[in-house]
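Input (structure):
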C-alpha cells in the first residue's frame, strides 16, 4: 500500500470514529434530557412502557409534539376530537394556539393540511361556519 492510500484509509477511519463519537454524544444528551424531564434515571425497570391508545384502529391527531409521551398524546388527541365536535371555529383555533404555547402540538403553516386533519378528527365541515374559508379566517401559526 502506498503512502497516499494509507493516508486516505486513515482519514476514512478518522471520519468513522468522529461519526461514532457524534452518535454517542447525541444518545447521551437524549438520555440526560429524558432524565431531566422525568426526574428519574432511565433504567430498564423505569423505561417508558408504551400505553395503548384509546382505539388502536384510530390514528392520533397528526400534529402532536413528538416529545410527548403516549399517555399525554392520547389526552391531547381526545381534547382535539372533543373540541372539533363541540365548539366553533374560533375556539378551535384559539385552543390549537394554546396547545402550541404549552408545547403539546406543532402547528403547520399549511392551513389546508391542518383543516384536513381537523376534519378527520371530527370537524363538521358540512355545517355552516365550519368551511375552510372560516378556518382560514381564524387560523394563525404565531
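Output (sequence):
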Amino acid at each position: 500500500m502506498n503512502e497516499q492510500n494509507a493516508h486516505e484509509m486513515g482519514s476514512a477511519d478518522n471520519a468513522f470514529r468522529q461519526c461514532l463519537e457524534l452518535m454517542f454524544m447525541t444518545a447521551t444528551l437524549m438520555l440526560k434530557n429524558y432524565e431531566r424531564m422525568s426526574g428519574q434515571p432511565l433504567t430498564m425497570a423505569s423505561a417508558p412502557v408504551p400505553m395503548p391508545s384509546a382505539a388502536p384502529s384510530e390514528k392520533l391527531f397528526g400534529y402532536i409534539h413528538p416529545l410527548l409521551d403516549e399517555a399525554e398524546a392520547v389526552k391531547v388527541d381526545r381534547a382535539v376530537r372533543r373540541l372539533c365536535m363541540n365548539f366553533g371555529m374560533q375556539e378551535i383555533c384559539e385552543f390549537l394556539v394554546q396547545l402550541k404555547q404549552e408545547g403539546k402540538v406543532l402547528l403547520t403553516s399549511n392551513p389546508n393540511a391542518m383543516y384536513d386533519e381537523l376534519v378527520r378528527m371530527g370537524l363538521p365541515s358540512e355545517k355552516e361556519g365550519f368551511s375552510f374559508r372560516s378556518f382560514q379566517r381564524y387560523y394563525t401559526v404565531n
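Notes: The two ends are 60 Å apart (CA to CA). The chain is about 60% helix and 0% strand.
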